[in-house]
Amino acid sequence: MFSSRLCWDVTPNPLSKLLEEKRRNGVRVLDLTESNPTRAGFVYPAEEILAAFADPRALRYDPSPRGLESARDAVVQYYAARNRPVARSQILLTASTSEAYSYLFKLLADPGDEILAPRPSYPLFEFLAGLESVKVRQYPLRYDGAWHIDFAALERSIHEKTRAIVVVNPNNPTGSSITGEDFERLETLGIPILSDEVFSDYADLRAARPHRALTFSMNGLSKIAGLPQMKLGWIVADGPGQQAALDALELTADTFLSVATPVQLALAKLLDVTAGVRAQIRERTDSNFARLQAACAGTAFQVLHRESGWYAIVQVPRTRTEEEWVLMLLGERDTLVQPGFFFDFESEAFLVVSLLTEPAVFEPGLRQIMLCGG
């Protein structure tokens, strides 16, 4: 009766079933998976955020498919402050990075075509691509003390139906960044690049240069300002063919007109007044990572190298499967972590924890993990 694009298995997995049972019984769970910054105890400048929406122009509907000029100018200033020249004409606003992916898949791929995406990474690409009748082929990131692209495997994955390469910079959950040399090598492949940069404000990335391949950079308020509920993102097109790509994207955006006027008008102020939130997030993630490293030092648990981002990976003894680890931690220790297979790790055993977690939860959660020994 329904489209095959929706043929997903939505059966609750054992971890979600156990978590629901714990919460139904009123058990206090030490949740080390919290990824929503608005629930992580950060102090937001509430008055300033709300005041940013007190603009009488929000009462008038004046649709602009690429986004209001004032909002795109705010994006220009955002990049200028990061030593990255971007013109207003290169920018198209979306309601989110997920919508940006949807637009770009529509632009670049026909049904049955393929997009290359990294593994491990956030488990969203298959769903977004599936809704566009596009397939995802994964290329591996390898770990040898630091994460890097396996270019030989990536290049073997390219064939006549490959339409784009997704890079997540910094990656979620590995926290690894794409080096300038790696990006140059990607550009030689002659395939458009979709660069997901939502965590870039929490990394020390070098200044960008003009791209030699058609490249679409994506970002938005969700991670930059810690405001996922405000629903505003953007695409920056660069490289050969950018103007034709933007003209085509404008047709898609004009069809949906999804970006709300109030948040566009508020964008410049939101980016400005949430600088303190970004600072809090960076301090929290760095300090929690230091806590994690200290807790695991001299134990059977190995913390994998992280450059930035909101997550950390712990390699645990293979005395149990990942599923057994997470079920045991939740069932016996009331501590919630994510297994590596949620992020398509190729081998076991890895646990993924969110560094956004409040210290009052993170520290006792770490103690419960350490008590499991190995």
Q: What overall form do the CA principal axes indicate?
A: globular
Instruction: Output the number of helix runs.
Output: 13
Cα Rg: 21 Å
CATH architecture annotation of the largest domain: 3-Layer(aba) Sandwich
Strand order of the largest sheet: 2-9-8-7-6-3-4-5
- Mean pLDDT equals 95
Number of domains: 2
Helix-strand pattern, N to C? HEHHEHEHEEHEHEEHEHHHEEHEEEH
Instruction: Assign the CATH superfamily of the largest domain.
Output: Type I PLP-dependent aspartate aminotransferase-like (Major domain)
Q: Per DSSP, what share of the residues sits in E-state strands of 2 or more residues?
A: 15-25%
- What structural category arises from helix and sheet content? alpha/beta
CATH topology of the largest domain: Aspartate Aminotransferase, domain 2
How far apart lie the N and C ends?
Answer: 49 Å
Strands, total number = 14
Poorly predicted tracts of residues: none
